[in-house]
Write a structure and sequence with these properties.
Elements: H1 2-21, H2 24-35, E1 42-51, E2 55-64, H3 67-74, H4 85-90, E3 94-102, E4 109-116, H5 121-130, H6 132-143, E5 149-154, E6 159-164, E7 167-172, E8 178-184, E9 186-192, E10 197-213, E11 216-233, E12 236-251, E13 256-270, E14 276-291, E15 295-310, H7 312-325, H8 331-346, E16 349-363, E17 366-380, H9 386-392, E18 401-410, H10 411-420, E19 432-434, E20 437-445, E21 448-451, E22 454-455
Antiparallel strand pairs: 1-2, 2-3, 3-4, 4-5, 5-6, 6-9, 7-8, 8-10, 9-10, 10-11, 11-12, 12-13, 13-14, 14-15, 15-16, 16-17, 17-18, 18-20, 19-20, 20-21, 21-22
Length: 456
């Protein structure tokens, strides 16, 4: 009995001491991040810590004292260079961060809230000068954590999830314009670091911006947006996006709308093989565009494209150079881009249109016209003298190009196009009629170009 009492007493002491010892794993991670902030252009303006028996909470306020340094840090995790004007939008911004974690070592979940507390310095000055009341409204909105990003992160499994706080705001400007913004159901989850995840899923239920003034109204809405992204490296990734509906509607002095349903995108890149590969797919179930000057409807639009056999070294160099143009252009940079582009072309590539097609289209008074389809394979053969030969005579490009393309277009659509653009009637002499379609087989081989067997 004495041994049991000793054992129970020991267990009770351990349980009591665990929270007092604190969760060193989370604490050390936070401290390491804080120590590196100054080199990233961020200063700690305020730090408050509150520790209870079960959990510890911390409040920080960070001041972006050098947005250029901060953006350079973010660029490490971005596939594209962040434009230089973003510096102005961030410089001098105050950001609040709340962190909460368990004091028990075996709990590694951390809750984080991130929210801007003020606008960037230049933005605030400009807004305050132009409209003091609107500035006061935005300032209050931010200080009340109106824009809040919540993260639940597990330090041991490297998984995270969270949400962006719902927004439902309305403001009336001095000219009686009423603007409403509603954002709801923004959630996400992923694997890896929040800044550079290996997997990221996100979802938005609804985004609506509505602006009204007397009898005029403008509405922009997005419904049911989902995306799934996987990242192996900055240049090896895949992103899939599904969108149920996007609408832009205007009424008043000018009226019209754009309504798009069931939109899908699939973008991917792979630079881990011998040659680089890039793929892009998209589909739109239906699109309607209507205005005083245009009435267009189409359904079942698809494209499926790929660029393969691309030289990795010159592509990577070109990617970095193009990113630099967003930070500022120069003649020297332009020359480097041209040189690298020439090198990439000299190594050849294959561009494939697996499918570009449209099922139905309605134009003006022409209803439910059958559409078109296009597929092709273009190959540019590697040639160290390619650019030199093209500069001498552009026609020499044909020596390095092979193309096999097939365009099928309905008679009704082709006739409509020739009425709008009379010059296209010249294509009639090359056309082959199959059922109710015009068919054009375009080939380039051995420096010769032909359509349906007829040499051009």
């Amino acid at each position: 009995m004495k041994k049991i009492i000793i054992l129970l007493s020991t267990l009770i002491v351990v349980v009591l001491l665990l929270p007092l010892l604190g969760n060193k794993v989370v604490e050390e991670n936070i401290q390491n991040q804080l120590l590196s902030l100054d080199s990233k252009g961020v200063a700690i303006k305020k730090a408050i810590s509150k520790s209870g028996y079960l959990a510890t909470s911390k409040h920080y306020e960070f001041f972006l004292k050098d947005s250029k340094l901060f953006v350079e840090h973010l660029n490490q995790f971005s596939n594209t260079q962040i434009p230089s004007y973003v510096n102005m939008l961030l410089d001098g911004m105050l950001i609040g961060v709340d962190v909460k974690y368990s004091n028990f070592l075996f709990f590694s979940d951390t809750e984080i809230d991130i929210y801007p507390l003020s606008l960037a310095k230049q933005t605030a000055q400009s807004l305050k000068k132009d409209d003091k009341e609107f500035y006061a409204y935005i300032d209050k909105f931010l200080k009340n954590k109106g824009l809040l990003y919540h993260i639940n992160q597990n330090m041991s499994t490297k998984k995270f999830d969270g949400f962006i706080k719902d927004i439902k705001e309305e403001y009336t400007f001095p000219d009686s314009t009423i603007t409403k913004l509603e954002v709801s159901g923004m959630t996400y989850n992923g694997q890896g670091s929040v800044f550079h995840p290996t997997l990221l899923n996100s979802k938005v239920d609804k985004m609506v911006l509505l602006s009204t003034k007397k009898n005029e109204e403008l509405e922009i809405s997005i419904n049911d947006l989902e995306s799934v992204s996987t990242f192996k490296t900055q240049t090896t990734y895949e992103t899939k996006i599904k969108l149920k509906n996007i609408k832009l509607k205007e009424s008043g002095l000018t009226s019209g709308y754009v309504d798009m349903n069931d939109v899908y995108f699939d973008l991917s890149a792979n630079t881990q093989k011998a040659k680089a590969e890039f793929y892009a797919k998209s589909s739109v179930k239906d699109l309607q565009i209507k205005s005083d000057k245009l009435n267009l409807t189409f359904s079942d639009f698809n494209y499926d494209l790929s660029l393969t056999d691309v030289d990795k070294d010159s592509f990577e160099e070109l990617r970095i150079l193009l990113q630099k143009t967003k930070m500022g252009a120069s003649q020297d940079l332009q020359q480097q881009i041209e040189k690298t582009m020439a090198e990439m072309l000299s190594n050849g590539f294959t561009f494939t249109i697996k499918d570009i097609s449209l099922s139905k289209i309605s134009l003006e008074n022409s209803k439910n016209i059958d559409g078109f389809s296009l597929n092709s394979v273009l190959n540019l053969k590697a040639d160290a003298n390619l650019v030199k030969n093209i500069n001498t005579s552009p026609a020499q490009l044909l020596k390095n190009v092979t193309l096999d393309a097939k365009l099928k277009i309905s008679k009704t659509l082709f006739e409509f196009i020739t009425k709008q653009v009379p010059a296209t009637t010249l294509a009639n002499s090359f056309a082959k009629i199959v059922d109710d379609n015009y068919v054009f087989d375009l080939k380039i081989k051995d420096s010769k170009m032909s359509i349906n067997g007829k040499i051009i």
